[in-house]
Every structure is written in C-alpha cells, then in structure tokens.
Amino acid sequence: MKQNFFAVDLGATSGRTILGTFIEGGLNLEEINRFPNHLIEVGGHFYWDIYALYRHVIEGLKLVAHRGESIASIGIDTWGVDFVCVGKDGNLLRQPYAYRDPHTVGAPDALFSRISRSKVYEKTGIQIMNFNSLFQLDTLRRNNDSALEAADKILFMPDALSYMLTGKMVTEYTIASTAQLVNAQTRSLEPELLKVVGLTEKNFGRFVFPGEKVGVLTEEVQKITGLGAVPVIAVIGHDTGAAVAAVPALDRNFAYLSSGTWSLMGVETDAPVINTETETLNFTNEGGVEGTIRLLKNICGMWLLERCRLNWGDTSYPELISEADACEPFRSLINPDDDCFVNPANMEKSIAAYCHATGQPVPEQRGQVVRCIFESLALRYRQVLENLRSLSPRPIETLHVIGGGSRNDLLNQFTANAIGIPVVAGPSEATAIGNVMIQAMAAGEATDMAGMRRLIQRSVPLKTYHPQDTDAWDTAYIHFKNCIR
C-alpha cells in the first residue's frame, strides 16, 4: 500500500502543504494548499501570525482527509531563528517576533560586552547576525519583555507548530543550530550561552534529531481534521537544511545555493569548520542530516525583488525577467548584503540611493532594477564561492541551485557566467522533498542520504547552465568589488 507523507513547508513570505508519495521510479509531490505568510506590523514591532499558519496547516490536513487519503506522517520545516514563548500553563504567550524586527539592531555589541564575540563563535560556529535567536533573547531580556519573563519554554517555529498539533514540546537540532545556542562540537545546547541570556536547558523541549517522532495528533486535532492519530516527525526543521538534503548530487564535490527569499550558499562537511578565517568571513556551521554540517553564508536573495514588486502591481516574474534580459549589462551594481536593503520602506528607492552614493547610473526603468539585482546577486555568489573554495575540504566542481530560484533561467545563466563552473538547477521543490525524504527514512521507505539523492537525481527534471561571456563577467567582478561599500 502506498504511503503518503504530509510536508508543511513555511517560508518567510509564503507557505504550503504538500503530499509526497513514492511511485515507481521516483517521488510524486502534490500541492494541497498554498497561503501567504504576512508580517504583522503593530506598536513598532513586526510579528508572525502563528495562529494563521496553524489554521492553514489544519486546512491542508482537512483537504487530504476529505479525499479519503491516509497520511503516514507529518513533518514541518520553517525559516530559522524565530521562536515562541510558552507559559507554564502551556499557552502561547504572544505572537512571535519576526527576525526582521528592528529591536535587535546593535544587539550583538550589547551581548559581547558580557561574553566575547570570539568565544560565541568558537562555541557555535554560527555567523554573527543581529537577528540570531541568541541576540533576540538577549534583547528581550534587556527590555524586560513580559512574554520572556513569563516563559516556561522557548519553542522554535517548526517545534511550536508541532506542539500545537501534538501537545508535545521538542527542540529539533537543525532549527536550534540556527539560534547560535547550540555547541557545534557537542551538537547540544550550550549551557554557558544559555546562562548569558538567563535560560537553562529546562527552558527548551526534549532535544531531538531529524527523523525522531514528536508525538501524534491530539484528539482535538483528530476531531477537527477527521484524521486519526497520525505521527508528527521532527524532520529537518530548518528549511535550508531540508533543501540541502534534497540536492541531487552523485558525489560530494559540489556547492549548493538554496535560492529563495534568502540565498544560502555553502558546502557539506563532516565536522564544523571553525577557525580565524571562517570567523573573519562570518561563515556559519549549521546542523544537517546524518551528522553533516552545512558550512554556508547567508546572502540576501530574492527579497530584493520581492520588495520591489510590492510597488509594481501584479507583474509576473517572466515579464520582469524578459525586461531585465533586454537591458544593458552591468550598468549598475549593488552589494545585496548592504544593511540598507534589510527592510527598507521602499526597496527600489534604496537601490537608487545606493547607486547614486557609489557614483553609478541610477536605474530608471523596471527592467534595469531587475537586471541590477540579478547581476549583483550572481557576482556576490562568485565572491562567496571563492571564499568557500579555500574553506571546503573537497574541490567544488559544480554548483547546485535548489529552491524556487532554480526556475529563474536568467539568474542561473548569470550565476554560471560569474562563477565559471556549471550550474545544475533543480529541484525547485527541494525543501518539500527533503522534508518528505526524512519522513520516508523514519518510516523505513528510504535508507540513507546517498540513496535519497540518487532517487531525486533520477526522478526530478534538472537543467545545466554552462559559463558564457566569462571575460565580460571577470571585468564586471572587478567593478562589483569596487562598488561594495
């Protein structure tokens, strides 16, 4: 009898539920429902609406139950670092802050007055970013936040949703590793860092690794959905980790680029890479499946274009890409990771201001803005890949682009041109596939990562882009480095 695996995949701008089923020769994915994930701005803060996300998950489960389909298990992955405070009575204390909330501006320096930056990085191997959970928690503590003061437990986003479904509290390793609270060597919560923010291990749920069972649907959820006591599995709770698990590589001589709202570029290693160079370059060591470490760098990705599109109406991506393709190359370049692009009120104006400040032509047409974004991202990828080559224990012969950005032909070709090695694009649904695969491993339908990747390579359409116009891109790269401020 076929087994259906229900994957909940939540990103920072949208979410969806997907039913994954193994068929002869591969894996079939069916989207059950898709929904927006809006930031809520109120009282000077940005929040996530976790109750809306829960409602959408319940709707997806009801749709499957209404069709008479059985579900072998459920797995949830989300973006990293954000969390929910839970009171002693088991209730959520308020909507969770979003990582783009400005309250953590300057937060790292405040923490490093009590524990050194180098010690934090040495223990965790996580890049210093002001929105890491460590800094969020310290900011809440310093601000005497009422939810944190009353909190009995801290649950990261996928674990909070699993709790709402099962009534069981866990802390899944891969999502916790994004928090800068996990010791990279011991693969467990680091007591010294917890103490710095006034917490202990008792403030977190049972520590689990990918593939472990969280619990089963509560009687309440069973009644609402019409399902039985379906198990919820702690998959790779961090969406990037789930996506990397689905890289269709046949050897390990590759780098990956998880391309979506964020671009995350890295390599897989068997142990953390924590040294002066990785600290200086601000590379991160996040937890992966089967004991692997994802040595990677966060790069601002399609967030730039998504924010521009807010002012462009319902223009489709293909139309924007066509406009960009027709524009003059290398007219204007930006550093995608400049602080001015974190969460501006008007992204297009921020890009224009950056170009003006760096003595470049200001984009005047929509296509010029899009081309500026794509070319700048491709050149930033080259810069990060150069650093990865010096850090990776293996040669990098191919770049695998996974996630929604793998469908962007123009950006993928620009990336191949910039980095000078083949780019293999796909699968676009890498996160959901990784989620399903971990559930399948837990159910005994798959055995290991290598076998999973071979199956994905056989069953998912892939497209390879070879470098073109490399001399022009080499020249543009010199210009790009001169534009970075």
TrEMBL record:
Reactions the enzyme catalyzes: L-rhamnulose + ATP = L-rhamnulose 1-phosphate + ADP + H(+)
Domain of life: Bacteria
Keywords, sorted A to Z: ATP-binding, Disulfide bond, Kinase, Magnesium, Nucleotide-binding, Rhamnose metabolism, Transferase
One family name in Pfam for this protein: FGGY_N
Enzyme class: transferase
Annotated ATP binding sites: 12-16, 261, 306, 404
GO molecular function: ATP binding; glycerol kinase activity; rhamnulokinase activity
Disulfide bond annotation, renumbered to this chain: 355-372
Ranges for domain Carbohydrate kinase FGGY N-terminal: 7-244
Pathway as given in its UniProt record: Carbohydrate degradation; L-rhamnose degradation; glycerone phosphate from L-rhamnose: step 2/3
Gene Ontology cellular-component terms listed: cytosol
Requisite cofactors: Mg(2+)
Chain sites annotated for binding substrate: 80, 238-240, 298
Annotated Carbohydrate kinase FGGY C-terminal domain residues: 255-443
Keyword ATP-binding in record: yes
GO biological process, one term: glycerol metabolic process
InterPro entries: ATPase_NBD (IPR043129), Carb_kinase_FGGY (IPR000577), FGGY_C (IPR018485), FGGY_N (IPR018484), Rhamnulokinase (IPR013449)
NCBIfam families: rhamnulo_kin
Stated family: Belongs to the FGGY kinase family. Belongs to the rhamnulokinase family.
Protein name: Rhamnulokinase
Organism: Bacteroides caccae CL03T12C61
